[in-house]
Amino acid sequence: MTFSIRMRVYYEDTDLAGIVYYANYLKFIERARSDWVRHLGVDQITLRATKGIVFAVRRVEADYLRPARFGDDLTVSVTLSALGAASMELVQHVMRGDQTLFTAKVILVCLGPADKAVRIPAEIRAVLR
Predict the structure, then answer these.
(1) Which of 64, 89, 90, 104 keeps 20 to 30 A from 82, CA to CA?
(2) How many domains does the chain have?
């Protein structure tokens, strides 16, 4: 299942040349992941407050293929590609129309109250499947 959001490139996202600053792609994919989790019905604030669990980025492999520019309309997608006991792997794309501008493989880990990896709760695993 692929989830996607639409967003526009604002001036604040760009460098002097009007091209999206490379680090902002990480913000774009983070926003998509946050909306994806909300769409699945997982309240991350409640999860942290009640179980002491958070999801943290462990690794990102990113490929910058084409530049996005000021004013572009983008689609940012999230696809779950693997689910482990305490982690998940996501594939994310930033698209302008049918052009892929940026791709990333993101590994998230479920952290417990002691900031150590813990099993993803069964109710969240059920939603992710």
Answers:
(1) 64
(2) 1
Q: Which CATH number characterizes residue 81's domain?
A: 3.10.129.10
Yes or no: say if 82 and 88 are a contact pair by the CB < 8 Å rule.
yes
Estimate to the nearest angstrom the gap between the alpha carbon of 44 and the chain centroid. Answer: 14
63 is catalytic: no
15, 43, 63, 73: the active-site residue: 15
> What does each of the 129 residues of the chain score in pLDDT, given as a tens digit?
899 999 999 999 999 999 999 999 999 999 999 999 999 999 999 999 999 999 999 999 999 999 999 999 999 999 999 999 999 999 999 999 999 999 999 999 999 999 999 999 999 999 998
Q: What is the value of pTM for the model shown?
A: 0.93
